[in-house]
Automatic annotation (TrEMBL):
This is CDP-diacylglycerol--glycerol-3-phosphate 3-phosphatidyltransferase. Belongs to the CDP-alcohol phosphatidyltransferase class-II family. It is an enzyme of class 2 (transferase). It catalyses: a CDP-1,2-diacyl-sn-glycerol + sn-glycerol 3-phosphate = a 1,2-diacyl-sn-glycero-3-phospho-(1'-sn-glycero-3'-phosphate) + CMP + H(+). One of its GO terms (molecular function) is ATP binding. The keyword Oxidoreductase does not apply. CDD domains: PLDc_PGS1_euk_1, PLDc_PGS1_euk_2. Residues 249-258 have a biased composition (Basic residues).
Length: 500
């Protein structure tokens, strides 16, 4: 039986039962890249990807080449990718130009969608320069669905994340209920994103029926209402853990009437579920079996649309840690909002935090304002350490140090009382900061398991990350030049902490 300590999670997300033997923990960027390659070679009918952006280096182009090969040799294969429009259009070449050949060569098999926050429009959009305008809000989810195989990660589809930028990666093999659920999230994202046409121009989001959500406040409000209602339909569904052929056919039948030419991709992807999801699989019918030793709870966070599923669950986990229980948190950009900080400080359990050192932050040594971001996080860290001082050694803060590497891992491991192995982990795109709660689109999953092999793998994953951690104190920060923010950074921290 799955631990009752986490039964309250079912109040926030429908539990999806699966076998822990189908869940694998990857540990290194190279393994992540190889997983992607292996899936692209073997995929049969659907590829669904979402990311902040796709890089423009040779490794990324190799992946694009594999997508092209698979589409070329399998006319029934459909591929849909959702990226952030601001980040994906940055520079030249960019994500759109790298993927442009796929749009031209496979107009009925491949679709590229660019999400653009409706909060950046009009005079604000004209006033903010490129890069800085990204503080308003981004598409930050990282969804990877290949047929019924899923990978959850915080990594972007870019060279550094394939080589020397440490993140986390957990794959779910033969998990149709999770794959189908995430396909619905992906479809909602795509329906509310701009479609890239063969000439690289953008078609308005299909959910807007010809209207541009960036054109007026009225259009923006229509867009937000549509996005909220579609996501709420997914979140509140009582059937996505127990899908039947008839339900799947009914829920997706209206997608066959889309107006844009290569929207056939999305409708074909979802309709394929009918023939590729076995109705007798215990995941599909949501029934207990000997192998259902693991429960997955999908969680989305889209504060701009008042969707706060992930925020509520994270706050509950932080506040529920009791004495003799242990909670380990990782974040590439540690900037806990007040609700999470208060929950953590008021808890009774032992807390370990692993965050990036200034040297392992991607912005370290950058030119311009971005170069001051490590100072900003150092200032936020100092504030947190001062707040946690009254709690003594119950709360420990570690910094990730690794020569020639950067750090981007995020997540949570929960150890119940008397247990040496974790019973729960969170993994996905959220950094648990203000941006994740208020501005960006995020998705992660809570995994609750009693599968010993999986528990051992999760514990090993946490240990490998923390092996690069150095315990940090306020005294250490005072003695380190990299931890001394300038006066102007100190001055703007109270404002900028809501945007980083």
């Amino acid at each position: 039986m799955i631990s009752r300590s986490f039964s309250w999670l079912a109040e926030h997300s429908k539990p999806l039962l699966l076998s822990g033997n189908n869940v694998r923990v990857l540990s290194a960027p190279g393994e992540y890249l190889q997983w992607l390659k292996s899936q692209l070679v073997s995929v049969k009918w659907r590829i669904l990807l979402s990311s902040l952006y796709l890089g423009t280096g040779y490794l990324e182009k190799e992946l694009v080449g594999l997508i092209a090969d698979s589409l070329r040799t399998n006319s029934s294969l459909q591929c849909s990718i959702v990226l952030d429009s601001l980040r994906g259009h940055r520079g030249n070449p960019n994500s759109v130009s790298v993927l442009g050949k796929l749009i031209q060569e496979f107009p009925h098999q491949f679709s590229l969608y660019m999400y653009h926050t409706p909060s950046l429009r009009g005079s604000l959009k004209r006033a903010l320069p490129q890069r800085i305008n990204e503080v308003v809000g981004l598409q930050h989810t990282k969804l990877h669905v290949f047929d019924n195989n899923v990978l959850m990660t915080g990594a972007n589809l870019s060279h550094d994340y394939f080589t020397n930028r440490q993140d986390r990666y957990i794959s779910f093999d033969s998990s149709p209920s999770l794959a189908n659920y995430l396909s619905k999230v992906h479809e909602t994202l795509s329906q509310h994103s701009f479609l890239v046409k063969p000439d690289s121009s953008l078609a308005n989001p299909q959910a807007m029926r010809g209207l541009n959500p960036l054109q007026s406040k009225r259009n923006s409000n229509i867009f937000k209402k549509s996005f909220y209602e579609e996501m709420q339909t997914i979140i509140q569904s009582k059937t996505h853990a127990a899908e039947t052929h008839s339900h799947t056919a009914k829920s997706h039948s209206h997608h066959t009437t889309k107006t844009h030419a290569n929207t056939n991709t999305e409708s074909c992807i979802t309709s394929e579920t009918r023939s590729h999801t076995p109705s007798t699989d215990y995941e599909s019918i949501g029934m207990e079996s000997e192998e259902s030793d693991t429960v997955v709870y999908p969680l989305v966070q889209m504060g701009e649309y008042d969707i706060r599923q992930d925020e509520e669950v994270t706050a509950g986990l932080l506040s529920n840690v009791s004495a003799n229980e242990r909670l380990c948190i990782a974040s590439g950009y540690f900037n806990l909002p007040h609700v999470h900080k208060r929950s953590l400080l008021d808890s009774k359990g032992h807390i370990s935090i692993l965050a990036s050192s200034p040297q392992c932050m991607g912005f370290y040594g950058a030119q311009g304002p971005a170069g001051s971001i490590p100072q900003l996080y150092s200032n936020l860290t100092a504030q947190f350490l001062r707040d946690s001082c009254p709690h003594g050694s119950r709360i420990r803060y570690y910094e990730y140090h690794r020569q020639e590497w950067t750090y981007h891992a995020k997540g949570l491991w929960y150890y119940l009382q008397g247990m040496n192995l974790p019973s729960l982990t969170l993994i996905g795109s959220s950094n648990y900061g203000y941006r994740s709660l208020k501005r960006d689109l995020e998705c992660q999953v809570a995994i609750v398991t009693r599968n010993k092999r999986l528990q051992l793998a999760l514990d090993k994953e946490r240990e490998q990350l923390y092996n690069y951690g150095t315990l940090l104190s306020l005294e250490d920060m005072k003695a380190s030049r990299d931890h001394r923010p300038s006066l102007w950074v100190k001055g703007i921290t109270p404002l900028l902490k809501y945007y980083v």
